[in-house]
Write a structure and sequence with these properties.
This protein has about 160 residues and is mainly α. About 80% of the residues lie in helices and about 0% in strands. α1 crosses α2, α2 runs antiparallel to α3 and α4 packs antiparallel against α5. The two termini are about 25 Å apart.
Amino acid sequence: MNRAHVVLIVAALPAAIFLQATLLANSLPGEVTPNLGFLLTVVAGYLWGAAGGAGTGMWAGALVGAGAGALAVPYSCLYGLVGWLSGLHREREPYPWTWPLLTAALAGILISGECFFASLQNGCQPGLVWKFASLGWSSLAGLFFLAVGYGPMREKDR
């Protein structure tokens, strides 16, 4: 685990969450906000395995939950689960083509959990179109992990 990567991602999380809540709010088609905390959590799991992904996910979830209002603990657990599953997948030495599928599955877990907690707090949920648009954009982010990880994974096979 490279110490510079750890400092960069952990320090970038508050800035990413702030950017997500302000400038990038509803910026994608479908009125979806890119979930930068989710993306950094998946990247941390990809780089550092299950333990690093879970730790980064718990930090990202605490920041997102605090921004959502009194949801720091449940979101911390939810994002920690996403980071742990991402890192666990990486430790299992997956095929490169499974990363977009994994990212879509993890986004589905995250969207479901966030909608559940939002309905408990506010009594309302986002619409079905928003859920599918958010899942689609998160799945496209999985293609980024495929592009980034394909080279190192192929070198390992040689």
